[in-house]
Amino acid sequence: ENKLMARPQLTNRYDLVNGGGDSDYKSRCNISLLSNYVLYLVFVTQTGFYIFYAFFYEAESEPCYANHLSKKNVAEGAGRDITARFDQVLMIGSVCGILELLRNTLNLWAKCFNHNKLAVAFQILGFITAFLFILNFILMQLYRFESLGRVCSGEFLSDAQRQQVLDTGDLPYLIKKGEFIYILIMVIYGMGAVVALSVVLLASTLKHQNQKRGQSGVQRSFVEDF
After folding, report:
1. Angle at 165 (CA atoms; ends 95, 146), nearest 5 degrees
2. 3-class SS of residue 190
3. Is 167 left (phi over 0), alpha (psi -120 to 50) or beta?
4. What is the residue extent of each domain of the chain?
5. CB 187 within 8 A of CB 209
6. Could you say which DSSP state residue 65 is in?
7. Contact, 130 vs 92, CB < 8 A?
8. Beta strands in 17-89 (DSSP E)
9. pTM score
10. Least packed by Cβ within 10 Å: which of 8, 26, 67, 171?
């Protein structure tokens, strides 16, 4: 009877499944708080810039038209509307960022308050944000690095001309938006390189440790046989 009384009480469905008390998911909650805090800072900053350039940056709101025959912007009807392309990228990035913030919020809520049903919504939003991210990353490179995107980004202008456009805004170029999209592309490639390098270093470390253990095991076996 005393043993039964000393047994910890299982108070909720999470305890019944995992056989423990609140300490397990509280520890997971603390870890998630730290990781999600860092993710929130990254996604809030990125999404804020997306929304700013997509909806509130009026200095480059006029359409910029370009064609493959000129290295300067052209009149309406003589080329493609690059402003609409850049705004499309910024719009998709804004939606993707907002959904990713919502996804991380649901993940944190599910882990801290043991709402297992939110895990389904977390997975669904994960597929949606992954699709939007890949689509937007492809469009960013296609629109920005194409000759038309480079024209409206002011890459073929001299430094004095670029500064004049930024100061006066008389000519419809997309210098700031083009710089922002370019920086995002470089950051994504940089993060991918860091992840790849980390995987290579981790694999090399594990391989070295396994080889070292194997050599020590062979030496120990040789000594015992001797």
Report:
1. 55
2. helix
3. alpha
4. 2-193
5. no
6. E
7. no
8. 65-66, 80-81
9. 0.73
10. 8
